[in-house]
């Protein structure tokens, strides 16, 4: 497997560590405390909305149709399992080479030609959209559960709604860059495969479509599929962090 040149280790989330290992992208670590960085991300209108949510005194009446104990855990597990299964079942992440059931046959069917990265990009974007929609809906449901508990929990639900709106665009823009970073990793593996077959140097892309036609779906592409799946699961972990916060608050009620 071909990875990016060695560099210093990162202590950030698994997604950042993976992308740093697989790509040439730089991820400078900030020395600023999180509170200071968050302050830079908030506009004055966002600060007003957050202040209003923090200072509100909601009148919270307990719902008579309160969900059963542990309902939030069951719901969170169901959504997370569904999103993980969607990644595991994705067709682009599964080898499509024909399998022969005769061990000693010499007339094996040729391996499929390797797909272009565009297919992987489209799949990644679709899975990102699936994660974003499912988690947004889940947060809405969890906030409703919190609002039915105590005034303090209702206030927390309001704060989460503001933070989702304020940071949602920033999160979307940051994660939208991931498919492009994976494209560089795909090309690195592709060039290395061509070079190993004596068709093109590893440092430069092949000059003709004839070289591309020699690429087959094989171990090099399986390595990319494995890396792409790991990145998707690491992204799911990041996207699920606000859910885990709401889940912890519900457990504490």
Low-pLDDT residue spans: 101-107, 201-211
> What coarse outline follows from CA principal-axis ratios?
elongated
User: In angstroms, what is the radius of gyration?
Assistant: 23 Å
What fraction of residues sit in β-strands?
under 5%
The amount of helix comes to 55-70%
Task: Walk me through this protein's architecture.
This protein is mainly α and 253 residues long. It has a domain at 71-94 and 114-252. Helix content is 64%, strand content 0%. The chain is built from ten helices and no strands. It has helices spanning 14-22, 34-41, 44-55, 71-89, 117-147, 151-175, 178-196, 209-213, 219-239, 241-252. Helix 4 (71-89) packs antiparallel against helix 9, helix 5 packs parallel to helix 9 (219-239) and helix 7 runs antiparallel to helix 9 (219-239). The radius of gyration is 23 Å and the shape is elongated. 19% of the residues are buried.
């Amino acid at each position: 497997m071909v990875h990016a040149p060695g560099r210093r280790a990162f202590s950030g989330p698994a997604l950042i560590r993976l992308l740093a290992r697989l790509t040439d992208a730089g991820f400078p670590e900030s020395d600023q405390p999180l509170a200071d960085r968050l302050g830079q991300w908030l506009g004055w209108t966002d600060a007003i909305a957050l202040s209003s949510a923090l200072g509100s005194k909601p009148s919270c009446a307990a719902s008579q149709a309160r969900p059963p104990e542990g309902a939030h855990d069951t719901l969170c597990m169901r959504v997370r399992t569904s999103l993980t299964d969607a990644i595991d079942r994705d067709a682009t992440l599964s080898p499509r080479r024909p399998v022969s059931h005769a061990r000693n046959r010499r007339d094996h069917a040729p391996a499929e030609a390797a797909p272009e990265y565009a297919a992987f990009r489209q799949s990644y974007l679709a899975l990102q959209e699936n994660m974003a929609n499912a988690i947004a809906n889940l947060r809405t449901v969890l906030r409703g559960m919190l609002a039915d508990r105590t005034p303090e929990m209702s206030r927390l639900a309001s704060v989460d709604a503001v933070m989702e709106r304020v940071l949602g665009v920033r999160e979307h823009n940051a994660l939208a860059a991931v498919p492009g970073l994976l494209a560089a990793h795909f090309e690195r593996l592709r060039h290395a495969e061509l070079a190993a077959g004596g068709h093109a140097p590893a440092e430069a892309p092949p000059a003709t479509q004839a070289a591309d036609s020699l690429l087959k779906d094989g171990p090099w592409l399986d390595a990319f599929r494995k890396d792409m799946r790991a990145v998707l699961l690491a992204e799911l972990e990041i996207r699920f962090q606000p859910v885990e916060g709401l889940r912890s608050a519900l457990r504490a009620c």
